Amino acid sequence: MFSGIVEMAIEVVNLKREGTNLHITMKCPFVDELTIDQSIAHNGVCLTVVALPGDGTYTVTAIQETLDRSNLGDLKVGDLVNVERSMKMDGRLDGHIVQGHVDTTAICTGVETLDGSWRYNFKYDVSTELARKGYMTVEKGSVTVNGVSLTVCDSRKDSFSVAIIPYTHDHTNFSQIKKDSKVNIEFDIIGKYLARLNDFR
């Protein structure tokens, strides 16, 4: 479980295909604190550390299901990935409850530079069936974009916007998101449970 408070954005240094799997190796300042089998969110996707070669990097593996639902398959060497280690149960929940199970991707339809902040607009494919499952946003609700816990503004049927403060812009890969960029989306788990409960009414 995660909170959506990204620790940092780290660089992809190697990508290796093995069958339908993608092995992603990244350079990480806190690699000495990691262990094999540890869960880390990458652009909001929970992946397991599978290798620690001892050179300041670690490797995770994304299977085809993950690649189909996220933007990890589009990564290139040199790209920045938002990372967050799993939440400590004795800590504060500064964001919201994030599972690391990406629901879908969205496309950035525009970035507006405001006076001291940025507004990012996103559009995603939606259907009545997905909406019934809670795959939607609500005004002032929570959404996870590339692993970052954010507050929704201008919520619409198939789109929404978020406002980004300078710290988030500079310490995550939001600084690289531009028009037509693909991002990972995880909708609020509370909304999904409420939608599921409605099926039994």
Walk me through this protein's architecture.
This protein has 201 residues and is mainly beta. The chain has four helices and twelve strands, in the order βββββαβββαβββαβα. It has helices at 64-69, 128-132, 166-171, 189-198; strands at 8-18, 21-27, 39-42, 45-51, 57-62, 80-85, 104-113, 118-123, 142-145, 148-151, 159-164, 182-187. The strands form two sheets. Strands 1-2-5-4-3-6 form a six-stranded antiparallel beta barrel. A six-stranded antiparallel sheet has the order 10-9-12-7-8-11. A hairpin with a 2-residue loop joins strand 1 (8-18) and strand 2. The longest helix is centred in the last third of the chain and has 10 residues, at 189-198. The protein is globular.
